[in-house]
Amino acid sequence: MILTVTLNTALDVTYRVPRLLPHASHRISEVVERPGGKGLNVARVLAALGHEVTATGFAGGPVGEVVRGLLAHSAGVTDALVRCAGTTRRTVAVADATTGDTTQFNEAGPLIDAVEWSEFLNAYNRLVRSARAVALCGSLPPGVPVGAYAVLVRTARAAGVPVLLDTSGEPLRRGVAARPEIIKPNAAELAELTGSRDPLPATRDARRRGAHAVVTSLGPEGLLAVTPDGSWRAAPPHALSGNPTGAGDSAVAGLLSALAEGLDWPERLARAVALSAATVHAPGAGEFDPRTYEEMRGSVKVTQP
Question: Which residues are catalytic?
Answer without folding.
Answer: 249
